Amino acid sequence: SFRMLGALITLSVALAPARRLSEAASTGNADCPCLTSAQRSLVTGWSDAKFVNADGTKVTLAGIVYSHPTDYGTNACVAHDAGQQPYCSKSEPPEWCADLWCYVDTATCTYPVLSSSYFLGAALKYSYATCGSKNSFASWFDDNAASDGSHAITDIADLLTGYLKDIVSTLELNQQEVSTSGATCEADSSCPCTTCTDNAVWKGSIDAQTVTIGLGDGVDPQSAAAKQDVCLASIVADSFTRIAAKESEPGRVGFEYYGSQSLGNYVQWPGMQDCDAYDPRYRPWYAAAASGPKDVVLVIDCSGSMSGERNRLAQAAAKLVVNTLTSADYVTIVKYSSSAYSYKSTLVKATDATKTDLKAWIDTNIDASGTTNFRAAFEKAWEVVDATTTSSGCNRIMLFLSDGEPNAWDADDYAAVAKKSASYSPPMHLLTYGLGEGADPTVLKGIACGSSGIYYSVTESTISDTMASYFQVLAPMLEPCKLRWTRYKDYYTGQQLLGACLASFELESANSATSCNGGLSGLGENGDSRVPKLIGVGCVDMNLVVDLGPALGQPGYPEAGTLRAHPEWKDFWAKVESDMAVCPRIELTTGQMETLRGEAGGASAMCGAEEVKKATEEVVLTFTASGSVSDYSDTSGLQQKIATAAGVDKSRVTISVVAASVIITATIAVPADTTAVAVQESLSSTLGTVATATAVLGITVESAPDMTTVKVQEEESSDSGLTDGEVAGIAIGATVGGVVLLVLVGLLLRSLLFKDAKPVFTCLEKSTAETKAAPV
């Protein structure tokens, strides 16, 4: 089993009876006094040599060591975590950073305590209860606090928002370091959960002392990606257990959970025995946070060529997508063969009842007979969309599933689909899926390229990861840091739960601000083709803090002490509905769509270069590097690093690698909104010497880079890497900005002759012309 390393804070007396405590002196309640620093050194497993150094007390989280004060957690009830890394040093730390607690002696403490694994092998226990800490809802709204009036019920939503922002920001700030540290972390597994026991309240086998992780189906636990995911899980787990320590109660069911985008791993408090295949990416809570409200049109090929495996894939793919929908989404399904039919005449709200009906409709109607009439399929899809008067009011997406073999399709059809999809506001993004081995990508890719979409190849082994990729298209279309709510029925208890969720994203660099603090601002501007990349989604159920209680008209309504019984319940629910529907859209550029295509399927999924702003100059960067040409077969990473150093979009950089040592040439198309001099200055400041170029590019550079400016010579070409049919239908293509061969040869020779020279800047006058830059 997996055993969590890092700062796992776990509930040691998980479901002990709740107590009303009177706060004693600053050293804790008399029945549960705080340990002194001297007493801590006597705790079983504690070693000053192991856990204390000149900088203070050493704390380890996900393989990363932090220094806390020498008397951390001892001597008194204070906010020991205030100001401490990694959680509480931020400008807006989580609520629990200000809570009072201390380490205690379980032999003399009669109150619930928690077990800390900040210090592996040490049997340290700590308590919030002895220091008088209370659940937030009780603290703000119980009989003693009700007359205070300093809190509104909507503050509970703000409380969860704060908790989730903390989880997300900590994930984002640590993701890069974890990915490069090579740390090995372990986790308590959900299958089997060796410490879980049956619990009458939760109606399942749980362990409130732990957070468990379930690896995605088929995930190799020894892979680098899985190890990184487990280390990130330990960071999430630490936040989960601290929040649970402050807010949970033994008799109240409420979960904390996280799903990863890359592998579909699932992390949950409380730990639970669960060996069923569970991919969080296909759960409404995940989709709501990752993709926001949306209109979804599923178009499914039911022709005779779709029999057998392809038909099974189509049904499975459609159900996976339906499972992701929430009540903030609108949906329909169109089936087609010789003709086309729709589930309903308009898009309908994706309620639980609708989703159940849709899956039954898929089982009954998705078959295989007749011809493949793409034209009828699109006519019916547009008819349904045009007839819809009430929808999500946010992003639109069509998922078009087929084996890629229409009985009739020509250039006019490509143009008609592209024109119609672009006519909507917001536009309809077409994602096309070639089902099964041997599916023909020609037409499907052409349709996707003409309608701001992506073509995917789907096989039985890749179906889950591929269908989950639609989140990667929608996630960048919304501003980050938008809380989403999902109301659902707990599988085990049948109780109605309300989850608050937030998505996390990879940062551009270790020094970037988090997504909630503007760290993703500027992506897509001025020719930038970068897009936010999803890490995962974290959630905290409102029920962890307070029960929802029975709904109006249900037995037991209103139940005192519940959220629905509060007089401001309508205000709270209005905020929830607003959060679910809000749609701060971001339009993706052509370059950003190309980036997404490249991430989804590599070069074969890309449509062609973005037509960039007019460039009249290029900066040619030449240097020698160690190794052989074969070491540079993949230059994508080098291309991005040089683009970053130059301050331009990746699509403006073309890489050439030739032998004779290894000579690398990067040609940078200068954007219209800057100058060649500015690009050269940016390059010189970051790549101007052998040492700095080696550090920035991550390769061994053997000569100081030589930089030259040339005027662009006009060159016409329509080769976009697509078939003739795709080019005719969607008019995609780009030319590669040309540089006179003799100039390059001269630069290469000079680089070899003057290996230790400083950067040289030369301007070669040539004819001015417009160019298009293609990514390598």
From TrEMBL:
<feature type="domain" description="VWFA">
    <location>
        <begin position="295"/>
        <end position="474"/>
    </location>
</feature>
<keyword id="KW-0812">Transmembrane</keyword>
<protein>
    <recommendedName>
        <fullName>VWFA domain-containing protein</fullName>
    </recommendedName>
</protein>
<dbReference type="InterPro" id="IPR002035">
    <property type="entry name" value="VWF_A"/>
</dbReference>
<keyword id="KW-0472">Membrane</keyword>
<keyword id="KW-1133">Transmembrane helix</keyword>
<dbReference type="Pfam" id="PF00092">
    <property type="entry name" value="VWA"/>
</dbReference>
<dbReference type="GO" id="GO:0005891">
    <property type="term" value="C:voltage-gated calcium channel complex"/>
</dbReference>
<feature type="signal peptide">
    <location>
        <begin position="1"/>
        <end position="24"/>
    </location>
</feature>
<dbReference type="InterPro" id="IPR036465">
    <property type="entry name" value="vWFA_dom_sf"/>
</dbReference>
<keyword id="KW-0732">Signal</keyword>
<dbReference type="InterPro" id="IPR051173">
    <property type="entry name" value="Ca_channel_alpha-2/delta"/>
</dbReference>
<feature type="transmembrane region" description="Helical">
    <location>
        <begin position="727"/>
        <end position="749"/>
    </location>
</feature>
<dbReference type="GO" id="GO:0005245">
    <property type="term" value="F:voltage-gated calcium channel activity"/>
</dbReference>
